[in-house]
Write a structure and sequence with these properties.
This protein is of the alpha/beta class. The protein contains eleven helices and eight strands.
Length: 256
């Protein structure tokens, strides 16, 4: 079995720094984090960072097992007059291994829908930057029993793409940064549903990792990672704290 095959059996822990960090704090964070996770050989690791710091982080992580990634990618594939945009080709050029696509904050603040997100997803695939599709319902949608319908609609961008692997991060919008975490039963039910939808869209042979995100921290990570069909975590605020992020990684290392 190759290393590439093994990574689809590991738990994944990805950090999302969002719009946080400065050069000095980033260097300190990574300097403190790396010694704490050197034995986490059974976990696939990565951090999604602000684009302006991507090359710096890539260089800092050189020789480590942590991937550097982007928090977003342009809907435009080719160089051109798209002021402020960063293409998938540019991300690949500075060492990004993955990019988040469709995070709820992009959907909320920038009105990104399936048409734009499918373009972003395809551009990542073209440049061999792994797209991490972020999905999740709002509280109003869950309370109206629309959560599965919303998630199915968000996953629909995967249709007809001839994919052999898919990584999805399920983040109920009502749990992101709120301290409120979905119950084990809610997480298990939604992750099972997501698996079934991906298999329906992409075929039985597709390799799948479905991560949970939404107020994951050192205290709840072990319980969340033990849930069936939870293949890892997308970590927000706790990924900016070396000790907390290391504790979540260690929980993934020992999870069954």
């Amino acid at each position: 079995m190759t290393e590439g095959d093994v990574m689809w059996q590991r738990k994944w822990v990805l950090g999302n720094w969002k719009m946080n960090g400065r050069l000095a704090t980033i260097r300190t964070l990574l300097t403190e984090l790396l010694p704490q996770i050197h034995d986490a050989q059974q976990v696939q690791l990565g951090v999604a960072v602000p684009t302006v710091y991507l090359q710096e982080v890539t260089e800092c992580l050189s020789g480590s097992r942590i991937w550097s990634g982007a928090e977003d990618v342009s809907q435009f594939a080719n160089d051109g007059a798209y002021t402020g945009e960063t293409s998938a080709a540019m991300l690949a050029d500075v060492g990004a291994r993955f990019a988040l696509v469709g995070h709820s904050e992009r959907r909320q603040y920038f009105n990104e829908g399936n048409a734009v997100l499918r373009q972003k997803y395809q551009h990542c695939l073209s440049e061999r930057v792994l797209p991490i599709l972020c999905i999740g319902e709002t509280l109003a949608e869950r309370e109206a029993d629309q959560d599965e319908a919303v998630v199915a609609q968000q996953l629909a961008i995967l249709a007809d793409l001839s994919l052999d692997s898919v990584v999805v991060a399920y983040e109920p919008v009502w749990a992101i940064g709120t301290g409120q975490v979905a119950t084990v039963a809610q997480i298990a039910a939604m992750h099972a549903f997501i698996y079934s939808q991906i298999l329906s869209l992409c075929g039985a042979g597709v390799k799948i990792r479905v991560l949970y995100g939404g107020s994951v921290n050192a205290q709840n990570a072990a319980d969340i990672l033990a849930v069936a069909h939870v293949d890892g975590a997308l970590v927000g605020g706790a990924s900016l704290q070396p000790d907390s992020f290391a504790a979540i990684i260690q929980a993934a290392q020992t999870a069954e």
